[in-house]
Amino acid sequence: MKVPALSTHSKKRSGAPAAGSAKKKQKASRAALPSHVTPVRPLPPHRLVLAPMVGASELPFRLLSRKYGADLCYTPMIYSSRFVEDDAYRQAELRTAPGDAPLVAHFCGNCPATLLKAARLAEPHVCAVDLNLGCPQRVAHSGNFGSYLCATAEGRATVLSIVRTLSSHLRVPVFCKIRLLDELDETLSFVRQLRDAGCALLAVHGRYRGSATRRRDGPAHLEQVAAVVAEVKRAAGEQMPVLSNGNVRSAADLLSALAATGADGVMSAEGALDDPAIFGRAAAEAAQRKRKLRKRIDALGEGGGGAGGADPTAAKRSTLLKSVDPTAAKKSAKRLKRLKRELAALPKLPKVAAAAGSSTSGGGLPTRPQLALEYLALCEKHGVLSGGPSDVPCARFHVRRICRDALAETRLLPRLEAASSLAQLGAIVRACVAHAEGGVVALEDAEAIEALGWRAECERRNRDKRKEFEARMARKARREGKPDDTYFRAGRVPPTDLQVAQLRAMPEQERMGWWSARFGQHCLAFHATGTCVRSESEHGCAFLHAPPTAAAVAEEPNVAPSWLRESEETPEEARLVAAAAGEVGTAGAGAAAAEPQAGRGNGKGLGPGAGKGGRGQGKGGGKGARGKGKGGKGHFGP
What we know:
Layout: H1 20-29, E1 48-50, H2 59-67, E2 72-74, E3 78-79, H3 80-85, H4 87-93, E4 103-108, H5 112-122, E5 128-133, H6 138-143, H7 153-169, E6 174-180, H8 184-197, E7 199-208, H9 222-234, E8 242-245, H10 251-261, E9 265-268, H11 270-274, H12 278-299, H13 312-324, H14 326-345, H15 368-382, H16 391-402, H17 404-410, H18 413-418, H19 422-437, H20 443-479, H21 497-505, H22 508-519, H23 524-529, H24 571-585, E10 593-596, E11 603-606, E12 615-619, E13 626-630
């Protein structure tokens, strides 16, 4: 479903109204707003929050999470500059639908003016705007945003300028999501500065930034999140809610995080990916714990539990115990106090209604395979990302996470990886549901899954061929003292739909050169004709067969993915990329290149060429002895 054209003049907002006292606080805290800006809207509910996830917190998954307990959801990370400049990107990244509220737009960037323009475009469709200050990946390093923007005093000054700019010009509140700084005192000081700059709600991921290649280094430090919560609560004036993020992989973990940190809410990413009903299961588990504690309190002769109050028989027994055995009565009183403390410490979570007409587990909620079926139904209704070829990989990712255990038990994971449509994914998930319920797989589903068996075997061969090629190229690069990925770094970014259309309109004799210079790692035949015969044969194909991306990203520079790069390309890198493109560009010529190797009497076949490789010859070093060697096979040509 396409989001309506964005406008900065719409007055509609999403999100539930807060209590009157909250409104007064919001007005008091924003008294200094410019005259042309109306008071900021009150905060949305934020007890159970679905975290922003790149390519994973998309519309269908948000709707599923809301159905089972999430009271606030974030969009995936949105690049502010592209959101301002590209209407197609804007439509794709801020897709929404009835029921997808309250929604927070999660932006990254480092320019106050650009972020303000982006936020104003999103403002009519969301209840808040969030600033990404926690991304630890290389793309954040190269773009100078996320956790890297908070690494220095100068960067934090930029962050505070952004927050002040947004909070003083928007009608919706401004949120921030951060990671821990190197020292706790630094973190606490930064939190105070964010609050003073106008941050209305803070999510704290309880891990340090780590490195660009290792985002998670052990469990989250929830004790530091608790210190942040305590620091905020000590402050005078309006309180800034704090969300705890990290160490939540199950419903029990969620309750433990709330208890350990005292946070106003919990934000979950990994736990929600594994179980979209994690919030509902946590609420059900909290309710069950309360019932058990109240029952034990009532059994000790105290009221305050269920609707019927204390058990009269237990009360008489307690009175008799006090008169007969004072020591035992004191122990009973201590136990009673402890139980009451435990009851008071249990978090208050909203109730989640069970889905009607389904076999359930965990507080009357659907099993995970049933959740996966619901997710696929939402994908069919709304589309996943943009309604294009990228939908299936995203849906497959979610199904693999949600049904991980069931896929392992049924051994259907290889077939899932080979699925190329939502219908095929649905057949696999229904088989998982039938297995869990002891039922029989429907005939049409069994036939679809059987057909995927051959496809899965082809995918395995293709992966093996790709590994062989990359290993060979890495060995060559090491011999030459170059980075291992030198010869397969260029041409990895997949083409767009527009570029594939351009390819198909070309005369055949011009396709090879044009394609090799831009997308040398991708299969020409697959994109030119829609199929690769070699990839479906016993030979396999080592080219990449990634589907084209949406037209919204048509102008991405064709270099290595941003998370593999940390700086602009140097002249030396440009030379290496051009050389690598030339190596790969020989792919369709029918012969593998032969590389003379100094000091050794053999030549190595390079590049994914079609047909058999030629024989390589190379002169040996030293005495000039001549060596001969067989060129590598050119196996994965189009």
